[in-house]
Amino acid sequence: MKKIIVFIMLLSAQTSFGQLINGGFELWDTAYTGLYSPSMTSLFGVPNPKSGTANHWISSSEWATDQTTDSHSGNYALILHNWYNYARGKITYIEPISYRPKYLQGYFKYITGGVNGRSHGRANITLTHFNGTSNDTVANGVFLFDSTMAYTPFQITLNYVSTVNPDSIKLYFINSDTNVFSDVVCHLLYLDDLALSDTPLGLEELTIDKDGIRIYPNPAVNELNICNNTSQLLEFSLYNVLGERLSKQLLGNTINHINLSDYATGIYFYELRSEKNIIKTGKVVKE
């Protein structure tokens, strides 16, 4: 299905509503076994990495932009990565636009590493309007990517500062917003299925509640991630629809992984408890 959508989009010179041209990274101008492809496979297990440039995207360097068959959907996704301590992968998208979308949405994975700590991947989106002499900003948005080993939905809300309609969109992604000393290859930011939208995703994983806990993805396949942004240990319990507890796990103030691979497809319930109180409950769908 993604290939068909991309083909239809390429028939238009303008960005069509709800999509970016080649937002699924199915089309590549170049793709070849690059200098760092073997390191990506040996260090991180990336399947079929190939250096190159995705169609309709401007790359800072083919050496830091890779095609991979480890995609959220379709045949390919894109990876941005560091190499050594000074060079960071970045891609840019610039196209005409004639409407006012509310969100940029997509899916990502972010595998961080390095001996001097972790960095953040970053996305910036700007809508502009040409006033005859210069470009005025109409809307903008920013997103920082946290570490996650599984494809996770993300959403950037566009903040409008003008009532005029935009005529251009500029979007860029960078795999780390600071240099990091590390191995030859590090900080792999996977991107796939990028789209513009007027409808919020509305998924639980896109918000961090006032209790400081983020749970994603939901629905989940084999693994549930729980980001504990509180300063305390929490106890996570998973129950079936009969109220029987299936598992119990202590969560530190980091990203914790709950293995769901042994459970059947269906609906489950969770409970998060501090030392004294139940602080969060909810539903998990296992696909």
Descriptive report:
With 287 residues, this protein is mainly beta. The protein has two domains: 2-197, Galactose-binding domain-like (Jelly Rolls), CATH 2.60.120; 204-286, Immunoglobulin-like (Sandwich). It is 6% helix and 48% strand. The chain has two helices and 21 strands. The strands form four sheets. Strands 1, 2, 4, 5, 6, 8, 11 and 14 form an eight-stranded antiparallel β-sheet that branches. Strands 3-7-13-9-10-12 form a six-stranded antiparallel β-sheet, with no helix packed on it. Strands 18-17-20-21 form a four-stranded antiparallel β-sheet, with no helix packed on it. A hairpin with a 3-residue loop joins strand 5 and strand 6. The radius of gyration is 20 Å and the shape is globular. The relative contact order is 0.15. Mean pLDDT is 81; it is low at 1-18 and 203-210.
Overall number of domains: 2
What do we call the CATH homologous superfamily of the largest domain? Galactose-binding domain-like
Query: What is the top-level CATH class of the largest domain?
Result: Mainly Beta
Approximate strand percentage: over 45%
Q: In one word, what is the shape?
A: globular
Share in helix? under 10%
Order of helices and strands: HEHEEEEEEEEEEEEEEEEEEEE
Task: Tell me which CATH architecture of the largest domain applies here.
Answer: Sandwich
Question: How widely separated are the two ends?
Answer: 20 Å
Number of contiguous helices: 2
Overall pLDDT metric: 81
Based on secondary structure, the structural category is mainly beta
Give the tally of β-strands.
21
* Uncertain residue segments: 1-18, 203-210
Q: Which fold name corresponds to the CATH topology of the largest domain? A: Jelly Rolls
Radius of gyration: 20 Å
Largest sheet: 8 strands, antiparallel
